[in-house]
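hey m, so remember when u said the tokens were messed up on ur end? i reran from scratch. heres the input so u can diff it against urs
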Amino acid sequence: MNHKNPWKTLSSITQYKNQYITLVEDKVIKPDGKEGIYGYVKVRPTLGIVPVDKNNNIYLCRQFRYIFKDESWEIPRGFLDDKETVEKAVRRELNEEAGLVSSTLTFIGSLRLSIGVIDEQCKIYLAQDLSQDKNFKLQKNEIEEVKCFPFNEVLAMIKEGKILDGLTVGTVLMAKEKLNF
């Protein structure tokens, strides 16, 4: 889907930067011909993993999300490190966040998250043939709990608004299609 860009960028300024995000403000000419600004966040490449065991259960991680001051059940996810292959990053994040090892990884697509303000395009993987890493230690500064849920229970949690994380909602629905549930 390549369409002619109706926006014209006049200049671009980095307003803030850390190891995870860059806040950019562009001076633009909008599609209506008027000058304005467009602010957005650039992020390092990201990935999300839907770990599904042989009984069609999904492993989710419970995290406290600072921005919302609330807990959230989510799929394991993370950033791709410099000079790291996507597959290596998927395996690393799956192990770091959920203590799982997968012998079968399947790319199932990409999702663009918060498309109007963040340039994040997350690569999504289905992880199957799972085993538990016996040396796993929960990262208490990040993950509070890892729990296995029946697939249908996760779908019900989404329908009931108990899971609000867009990446988790999108990836669970993608996995449902891939697994023909």
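this time it looks ok to me. The beta strands are 8-17, 21-29, 35-43, 46-51, 57-65, 70-74, 77-79, 100-112, 121-132, 143-150. if urs says something different then somethings off w ur setup not the seq
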